[in-house]
């Protein structure tokens, strides 16, 4: 542990990067996957379990927490870490994505965004300064700038307007964040699917000398090849010595291909959301446990896994739980999926350390392509 935020880049293997973020609340091994704890809970999981899967950090959502239980109440109760019993680092997003995507009523201008709560219809105003204030009240270790995320496809003029607005908001967030020893604020590169705008955004944010940089506005409807092309355009412009975070991504395939291009941090609701709907990610690819073929299969999802949910429960039982809409089915599959994601990250880090990431990537994708075990 350290009193300051520090990122150490230990090794590179072609584009892939092995490193570590050191913070007062602990170290974050990179490449890292951050489970999403939207409202102070990683859905259907105990946080002790989340930690045991190998997670060094989780994500909290500013928009949802400011509405319930409110940032001020969380602060009065001692901060988010204390409230949810998670002593390790927490990254909070700015709330911008949810404001843009969930709110049925919003008014955007230079000062920020006024929006209607999806919970009770109450009106709220989120400025760059208020976003940073809320994240500070929550006690977040890594705070994100407020930005405007445009869903793709979109008109070039609209993408450029949002990108320029996000840059101005980044400067205001940096001033509002000030100096907070041991904590960090990350900027967010925008620019949609237009390479020149991505480069302009990355160059301007780099001038702010922030502690880290995220790539936002991807995985919002565009094909994977567009996302990867934007990473190839953007990442060479960002400082080598700062961590790079790809927001809201994604599938195991997305993660592998993004690590290959130089991404250090990921978050996504996919492992838990998929688990609650009966879909498991495994070393043999995706498994829909609802399918009838699993009804009398007493084999586990993955007998090689260290996770009890993966190793100790039969597919037949998981199939029964999911088909009966029992909560335990979603809990066990969420546990399995998060464990698989962390095992994947561990394998990625080991491969980079050994200088064999390309081989690891090819072997992993070949195993996915083999498909699930033959039916019994």
Automatic annotation (TrEMBL):
Enzyme class label: transferase
Record carries keyword Transferase: yes
GO molecular function: tRNA-guanosine(34) queuine transglycosylase activity
Pathway: tRNA modification; tRNA-queuosine biosynthesis
Chain segments annotated as coiled-coil in the UniProt record: none
Segments of this protein annotated with the region RNA binding: 248-254, 272-276
InterPro entries for the chain: ArchSynthase1/Queuine_TRR, TGT, TGT-like_sf, tRNA_ribo_trans-like
Enzyme Commission numbers on file: 2.4.2.29
Keyword field contains Transferase: yes
Any single Pfam family the record assigns to this protein: TGT
SUPFAM superfamilies: tRNA-guanine transglycosylase (SSF51713)
Catalytic residues of the enzyme: 93 (proton acceptor), 267 (nucleophile)
Domain tRNA-guanine(15) transglycosylase-like: 15-369
Catalytic activity annotation: 7-aminomethyl-7-carbaguanine + guanosine(34) in tRNA = 7-aminomethyl-7-carbaguanosine(34) in tRNA + guanine
Source organism, top-level taxon: Bacteria
Chain sites annotated for binding substrate: 93-97, 147, 190, 217
Alphabetized UniProt keyword annotations: Glycosyltransferase, Queuosine biosynthesis, Transferase, tRNA processing
GO biological process: tRNA queuosine(34) biosynthetic process
GO CC entries: cytosol
Entry's family note: Belongs to the queuine tRNA-ribosyltransferase family.
Subunit structure of this chain's protein: Homodimer. Within each dimer, one monomer is responsible for RNA recognition and catalysis, while the other monomer binds to the replacement base PreQ1.
Function as written in the Swiss-Prot or TrEMBL entry: Catalyzes the base-exchange of a guanine (G) residue with the queuine precursor 7-aminomethyl-7-deazaguanine (PreQ1) at position 34 (anticodon wobble position) in tRNAs with GU(N) anticodons (tRNA-Asp, -Asn, -His and -Tyr). Catalysis occurs through a double-displacement mechanism. The nucleophile active site attacks the C1' of nucleotide 34 to detach the guanine base from the RNA, forming a covalent enzyme-RNA intermediate. The proton acceptor active site deprotonates the incoming PreQ1, allowing a nucleophilic attack on the C1' of the ribose to form the product.
Protein name from the UniProt record: Queuine tRNA-ribosyltransferase
Organism field: Rhizobium phaseoli
């Amino acid at each position: 542990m350290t009193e300051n935020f520090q990122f150490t880049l230990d090794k590179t293997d072609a584009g892939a990067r092995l490193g570590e973020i050191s913070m007062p609340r602990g170290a974050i091994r990179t490449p890292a996957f951050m489970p999403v704890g939207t409202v102070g809970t990683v859905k259907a999981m105990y946080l002790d379990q989340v930690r045991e899967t190998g997670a060094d950090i989780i994500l909290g959502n500013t928009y949802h927490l400011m509405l319930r239980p409110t940032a001020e109440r969380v602060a009065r109760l001692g901060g988010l870490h204390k409230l949810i019993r998670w002593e390790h680092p927490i990254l909070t997003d700015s709330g911008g994505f949810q404001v843009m995507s969930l709110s049925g009523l919003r008014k955007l201008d230079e000062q920020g965004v006024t929006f209607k709560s999806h919970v009770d219809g109450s009106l709220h105003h989120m400025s760059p300064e208020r976003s940073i204030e809320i994240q500070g009240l929550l006690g977040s270790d890594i705070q994100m700038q407020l930005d405007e995320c445009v869903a793709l496809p979109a008109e070039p003029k609209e993408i450029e307007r949002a990108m320029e607005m996000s840059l101005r908001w980044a400067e205001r967030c940096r001033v509002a964040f000030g100096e907070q020893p041991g904590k960090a604020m990350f900027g967010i590169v925008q620019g949609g699917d237009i390479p020149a705008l991505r480069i302009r955004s990355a160059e301007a944010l780099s001038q702010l000398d922030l502690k880290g940089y995220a790539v936002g506005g991807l995985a919002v409807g565009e094909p994977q090849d567009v996302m990867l092309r934007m990473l190839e355009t953007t990442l060479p412009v960002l400082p080598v010595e700062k961590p790079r975070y790809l927001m809201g991504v994604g599938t195991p395939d997305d993660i592998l291909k993004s690590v290959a291009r130089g991404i250090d941090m990921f978050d996504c609701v996919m492992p838990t959301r998929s688990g609650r709907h009966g879909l498991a990610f495994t070393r043999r690819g995706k498994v829909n446990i609802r399918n009838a073929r699993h009804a009398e299969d007493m084999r586990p999802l993955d007998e090689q896994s260290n996770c009890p949910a993966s190793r100790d429960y039969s597919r037949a039982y998981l199939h029964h739980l999911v088909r009966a809409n029992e909560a335990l089915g979603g809990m066990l599959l969420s546990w399995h999926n998060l464990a698989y994601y962390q095992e994947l990250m561990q394998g990625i880090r080991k491969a980079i350390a050994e200088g064999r990431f390309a081989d690891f990537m090819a072997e992993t994708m070949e195993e996915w392509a083999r498909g699930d075990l033959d039916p019994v």
